[in-house]
Design brief:
The complex is a heterodimer of chains A (265) and B (75). Chain A is built from ten helices and nine strands. Chain A has 265 residues and is α/β, with parallel strands linked by helices. The model of chain A has no long low-confidence stretch (mean pLDDT 95). The chains are: A alpha/beta (265), B mainly beta (75). Strand 1 of chain A pairs antiparallel with strand 4 of chain B, so a sheet runs across the interface.
Chain lengths: 265, 75
């Protein structure tokens, strides 16, 4: 390791490490595009598991979508679900192994479109699982097609003139939808486009995992993320666009905490 | 008086050159260079030694390629 600056030689020592990659992530290079929010959320989930010391008691469910290879990146027991069926698979695993920590990691196409049915019913049954939901308003992996969460007027490859609600419906706010179900215990929406929000998102993910000890119902964390390839922007522009546009339709903050709605829907 | 100083090490072979860390660094310690790594990305590199260990870059980096060091030094 070559150190560029003379003054840094004193600082770069093992005892001074303030941050390094968690051991719950493998050494594989993430398959995501440069600047994608998936990487940050992977890290937050992995760090939470490391801090809670539950690496050997956690089972993750990988979705279909950009995060389909999540089992390559988490050093955990993982299962790969059919498209949209992650909450159903998580239900089975949690009922077979009630002492394990079970989480699903899904994108908006997987959770809100193809898996809308599974998501709503798993939440309605009040399964004691954690759902991590990455919302970037587009089908990233298949080439930027319109998703249920695509904003009004947003241009995608299947809505080239912008999403017209009269023809294509309104953006689906599934997080608000499932917050109304009595089976959910903790529902929140976070983002990872700025360091301060990353820290908040980590706290939310930690709470969602801690809730599994209580056996009170589903903990659901939505993360509003970017898709710079699908949106056809640079990563920095995409984060700016997210702040200006996505957050109007998907406002950040807790929606349901400890089984009580904290926000008017 | 003791002062907190920071230093970062970037794993350039894993960096994808997204530039998010360049944007969030208040001290402008990081910049995208004109050299590419094995994957063909213009990777981020350190350009000055003013790091204060604020953790912004490690928080925003999607690929967790930055290791941060923090130490108290006498000035």
């Amino acid at each position: 390791m070559d150190v560029k600056f003379e003054s840094w030689k004193e600082i770069i020592k093992d005892e001074n490490i303030a941050f390094k990659k968690t051991k719950v992530l493998t050494d594989n290079i993430l398959s995501y595009c440069p600047g994608c929010g998936h990487g940050v959320v992977h890290r937050l989930v992995a760090e939470t598991i490391e801090e809670m010391e539950i690496q050997d008691q956690t089972i993750g469910i990988a979705p279909v979508g950009c995060a389909v290879l999540a089992y390559d990146f988490f050093d955990l027991d993982m299962q790969q679900a059919a498209h949209g069926r992650a909450p159903a698979l998580a239900t089975a695993i949690k009922r077979l192994y009630p002492e394990k920590f079970v989480f699903t990691y899904q994108g908006d196409g997987d959770l809100a479109a193809i898996g809308g049915n599974e998501t709503i019913h798993a939440c309605n049954r009040g399964e004691n699982i954690t759902i991590i939901f990455i919302n970037n308003g587009i089908y990233g992996m298949t080439g930027g097609q319109m998703a249920p969460t695509t904003l009004e007027g947003m241009v995608t490859s299947t809505s080239p003139y912008g999403r017209d609600p009269k023809l294509m419906g309104y953006p689906l706010r599934i997080t608000e939808l499932i917050a109304m179900l009595p089976g959910t215990y903790y529902v929140t929406r976070q983002a990872v486009y700025k360091p301060a929000y990353v820290r908040k998102a980590k706290k939310a993910i930690r709470k969602a995992f801690e809730n599994q000890k209580l056996n009170k119902g589903v903990s659901f964390v939505e993360i509003v993320s970017n898709c710079n390839s699908g949106w056809k922007m640079t990563p920095v522009e995409a984060n700016k666009w997210l702040e200006e546009n996505m957050l109007k339709t998907f406002p950040l903050g807790d929606i349901k905490v400890d089984g009580e709605l904290v926000k008017e829907l | 008086m003791a002062k907190v100083k920071g230093a970062i090490v970037i794993d350039i072979e894993k960096c994808k050159g997204c530039g998010l860390c360049v944007e969030v660094c208040p001290q402008k310690v990081i910049a995208l260079g004109d050299k590419v790594n094995a994957k063909g990305y213009f990777y981020a590199d350190v350009v000055n030694e003013n790091c204060t260990a604020c953790e912004n870059c490690v928080m925003i980096c999607p690929d967790t390629v930055i290791t941060l060091y923090r130490a108290k030094v006498e000035v």
